UniProtKB/TrEMBL annotation:
The keyword Isomerase does not apply. This is SAM-dependent methyltransferase. GO terms for molecular function: methyltransferase activity. GO terms for biological process: methylation. It comes from Elizabethkingia argenteiflava. InterPro entries: 4pyrrol_Methylase_sf (IPR035996), 4pyrrole_Mease_sub1 (IPR014777), 4pyrrole_Mease_sub2 (IPR014776), rRNA_ssu_MeTfrase_I (IPR008189). Keywords: Methyltransferase, Transferase.
Length: 232
């Protein structure tokens, strides 16, 4: 089986907030697809501190990976070895490259088992007050300023015309620049929701207000994981 294992959004989130089955699955296998080995070891230690790290076998599955890069793991799975697929944060395969192994598993009659856990994208949406029945997730916006401006105006226009909530994110060290671009580019009546440090017991910040109000708000998002949502 291929278990899709959630990771925490914040290291400070209490362990009791997660299903015990996560630790059970981690204890039950030593084989994992991971985006980053260092992060994966921290997540595994968080859920199952008694797990012997020396027994772990990692197969890197990042944005550069292709199915053919993981032949050794595929042979093991066909022989009956269970694997876990672990995201950097939240649920695997959402803003995460793990889907290529899930697709391979379906093609090769390997059972896929999704596990309950947090998704910063969904948590940001449901806490925004915006339309949760029609929405689009765009991932990361262009880095180039002119291209980013075009994209922001397009998202604003799409939201106004269709009513679809528009969800996107940025690399944490560029969050402040994105927020500044949003404030400068969008109509002052447009509503923006910012959800940062989701699931942190003390530092979680979630706020929805107009661009006009954001212009009066002091907020430092530098190196803080955040999700941005435009909506009605």
């Amino acid at each position: 089986m291929l278990f899709l294992i959630p990771a925490y959004l914040s290291e400070e989130t209490p362990l009791k907030d997660f299903a015990p089955s996560i630790a059970e699955v981690i204890m039950g296998t030593d084989y994992f697809f991971v985006e980053n080995e260092k992060t994966a070891r921290k997540v595994i230690k968080f859920f199952a501190p008694e797990k012997k790290q020396s027994q772990l076998k990692f197969y890197v599955l990042d944005k550069y990976s292709e199915t053919c890069d993981l032949k050794e793991a595929q042979v093991l799975m066909k022989k009956g070895q269970d694997f876990g697929l672990l995201s950097e944060a939240g649920l695997p395969c959402i803003a995460d490259p793990g889907n290529i192994m899930v697709a391979w598993a379906h093609r090769n009659q390997i059972k896929v088992v999704p596990m309950n856990g947090p998704s910063s994208i969904i948590l940001a949406l449901i806490s925004s007050g915006f339309n949760g029945q029609r929405f689009t997730f765009h991932g990361y916006l262009p880095i180039d300023k002119s291209e980013k401006r075009k994209q922001l105006l397009h998202l604003e226009s799409s939201m106004q015309k269709t009513g679809y909530s528009q969800i996107f994110m940025e690399t944490p060290y560029r969050n402040n620049q994105l927020l500044e671009d949003l404030i400068k580019t969008l109509n002052e009546k447009t509503l923006l929701s910012v959800a940062a440090n989701i699931n942190h017991p003390d530092k979680e910040f979630i706020k929805t207000q107009s661009i006009r109000e954001w212009r009066k708000t002091e907020l430092n998002l530098h190196k803080i994981p955040a999700i941005f949502v435009l909506g009605k």
